[in-house]
Write a structure and sequence with these properties.
The chain is of the alpha/beta class. The protein is 50% helix and 12% strand. Helix 4 packs parallel to helix 6.
Length: 204
């Protein structure tokens, strides 16, 4: 990491710390015309159901806010990092829900590199003054919660974070369309949990 990027990181971390110290809820209340960006892979795009039953679509229904579904099936963190700036430019969100990395895990890619890619995504979003909500993706183990890199990044950037949601839903066969993806019922439960997470942290 270059000196300029390191300085930016330190400034962002200092800002996040000050905001957190002043605001115990973790997130600022979103205005009624706010845009939520759901960024990720197939779990965001809604593979296993129709797009109007995906978690971003249900979250839009629950929150009453516009939710942009920016999920791309099969995407790795490296690919997500490449397209993120363009999506941010196009959607101009007030908050980003980031669920990325499942394909890195499924393809046995280097998890340190995946962590670096996710860190760069968080930096790109944070540099625009946009808060990030991070949802962890589990390792390839039936009883695992999210991979350690997610908790580490959440602690590093003091993010609103859920490391159990995806893994808990994936343990229930009645909520799944295949070994990885959810069905309509599963995506609704996913949306309900994220909606509650936003409520609990002051965004809604």
């Amino acid at each position: 990491m270059g000196n300029k990027r390191m300085i930016k990181l330190l400034v962002i971390l200092a800002s996040v710390f000050l905001l957190h110290a002043c605001d115990s809820t973790g997130l600022k209340s979103l205005p009624r015309d706010a845009v939520i960006l759901a960024f990720g892979d197939s779990l965001t795009s809604g593979v296993g159901t129709s797009k109007d039953k995906s978690y971003p679509a249900v979250l839009q229904e629950l929150s009453g806010l516009r939710v942009v579904n920016a999920g791309v099936s099969g995407e790795t963190t490296a690919q997500g990092l490449q397209r993120l700036n363009g999506v941010l430019d196009q959607s101009t969100p007030d908050i980003v829900i980031l669920i990325e990395g499942g394909n890195d895990i499924l393809k046995n890619l280097n998890m340190q590199q995946a962590k670096n890619n996710l860190r760069e995504m968080i930096l790109l979003i944070s540099e625009r003054g946009i808060p990030v909500v991070l949802i962890g993706v589990p390792e390839k183990s039936l009883f695992s919660s999210s991979a350690p890199i997610y908790k580490e990044l959440a602690a590093e950037f003091d993010l609103v974070f859920d490391g159990k949601l995806i893994s808990s839903l994936q343990r229930s066969s009645e909520l799944k369309s295949d070994i990885v993806h959810f069905n309509e019922k599963g995506y609704r439960k996913m949306a309900e949990a994220i909606h509650q997470l936003l409520i609990d942290n002051g965004a809604l």
